[in-house]
Amino acid sequence: MSELRADGFPEEAVRERARGGAATAFPDPGEYGRVLFGADPTESAGAAADLLDRLRLVPPIFVPHRLERLIDLAREPMYRDVELETMVGGFRSTLPIYLSAFGSTRATSGDRGLAVSRQAGRLGIPMVVGENVMPVKGYGRIEDHAEQSMLGRISTYATHALDGYGGVAIQQSTEDADAEVWNLVYSDPNVQSLLESGRLAFELKVGQGAKPGLGGMTVLDPSTAARLTDAFIMDPVFGGRGDAVLRCGSPGTFTDEILRQQIRLMRNNFPQARVWVKLPPARDVREAALVAWEAGADAVTVDGAEGGTGWAPVAFLAHVGLPLGECLRRLGEAREPSQHRGGEARAPDRHRGDRPSCLLVSGRMWEGARVAKSLALGADAVGLGRAALIAVDTDAENGLVNLVGCLSLELQMLTSALGKYHVGLLAREDVWSPDEPVHPVPHSSSTESVRS
Amino acid sequence: MLVAAREFLDGEGFTELVAPVIGPVTDPGARGAKQVDVDYYGHRYKLMTSAILYKQAALAAFDRIFYIAPNVRLEPLETASTNRHLAEFHQIDVEMAGASREAIMQLAERLVGHVVRQVVAQLPGELASLGRDTSMFAELLSQPFGQRSHADAVADLRGQGHDQSPDAEIDWAGEAMLSRKASRPFFVTDYPKGSRGFYDRESRERPGFLRNFDLIAPEGYGELSSGSEREHDYATIVARIRETGENPAKYGWYLQMVREGIPDSAGFGIGLERFTRYVAGLDSVWQASAYPKVPGVALP
User: Between chains, do B245 and A192 touch, taking CB under 8 Å as contact?
Assistant: First the structure.
């Protein structure tokens, strides 16, 4: 077994799914008929559970969408009839899932990074390549160890990609700008197939969930650290330990005008690439998302405070940043109805005020219910981070495919239970909060509004 | 053409300096292009994509300067088919202290006019052998250049059904469309912030728009030159560097110089190979270079 651990994350459950696939959406079939089941009220809504965990998905009795689907199919629809295909930040994806950024941290290096890329490509879901991969691991065109590099991840993905699906988003932060990651990728002959098929995006990293307000941090051995002193601040905080140096990135300075102009410059300089913007779970996340969409971003990615594969100070993990549920509540007030929802993919014209408002979120995602709740609260897709790494660590060939297979079955069952047959139709009416109403309770009792 | 350009600029009181080839930073304003890194004794240096920052520095010694500057930009591969991009090229790179945009545009117009006039007068045989119809220069030599704003150019293109972003540079196809409609060179002014480097000065009267210009050749030849009034206020430059996604730390020497004070100025760079292509009437810019580097194509 690998050394990879994820304390505070349902690691064992993820490993079980990575091994067993869709079957693990159910209790052990061997227990059928011998064990009595029922909800444990403390399990899903305990005091320690986060905002999303405390929500419940609540199916209706009256189901007009099911009637529509019944008429389409000329038979009663079943959960396998739920369509999952979704536009994710300008990419066509087989389901509303993408792979979150893994940076240059050691947990994501080498074979794990490649296994994740290979399986994401097979699944037809987009993949984000994290910041600092190139300055730390190299690009891979003319260096040694090309397979560990950024190009290694991109080309592995492209080789295995499902035709017409998915895409790669390349992250860049303030420090990466020195290495001109985007410029290099954009002009690279190896990346042209993705670019020409509209499957390349650049993600501007404004911040991240694990340590909002701080820049990237990784622990390096002293020789790697010495090579990078030009690009990063090295903090000798580990003092006596001769084998470890803390590499610190800057969080970057943003105002609304700086964010707006950076996005416009990305669109100006890389007109064939999609533009994604990753925001931390900050108190002004709503305002920042509005600026990003207005400036023409194809997607805004919000990493809840629960998220993050990265190295972060203990105080930040426990005490800093908005939980994802609260981010979604704030963002829900900001969004226009998305052009991407409801199955019909339509490319918005960004120059005619027809702004895309694709919202991607991440934070402790690994199973279908949390994904469904996030979609119901307004996300278009959710990112897998730690879960994907643990899955490929469990089974380098099929771990992620199995995990996602289980998740997609759950998503189909949950969506159909809510009386809907496209995952993009999930809406606030589908969730109930014990804390406060997440949407006003309508006076009319029977019909639900159709979002499309 | 270089002889004529030098003759003109010398007559206008400009001093020719020799441009740097490498430096810790270079012009970050090149659309989508990658800079070439040089391992300079363990420091990451760059080949010049343009010498703009060094032109501003040179004004500490002379009020009017120019370079015939070699530049290298690893352009996106899509530019290999525009007929007007080379990865290695030269600029007639001019900067003038205390100049307004209007003054520097007028200088560019007179410089282009002088060079074309000299070539037409002195090299009729060469132009004839290239099949260049010199009557195409009649308007250039007899009338002022045209001028329109970026917003007007965008509206024109959108009116023709071309999907041009109002927030970005005119794209390659749009630029060719505008150029084909023209019969003499014309300036496009007032590009939106977010389409150019941090050194193009933002209008005080119209925030969000830059005091800059492109000079476009007629007959479909497209852009010959870009220029602008320059930002010279320290705090404004730092904020603008952030707006272009850059890390101010790598501009240390430049920012120190700006902090100590640099003159306000305006300037431009004329792409020598593009200018040659236009004057000689060549199909593609690579024909204007003895050792052309077409983006992505490995050639000597």
Answer: no
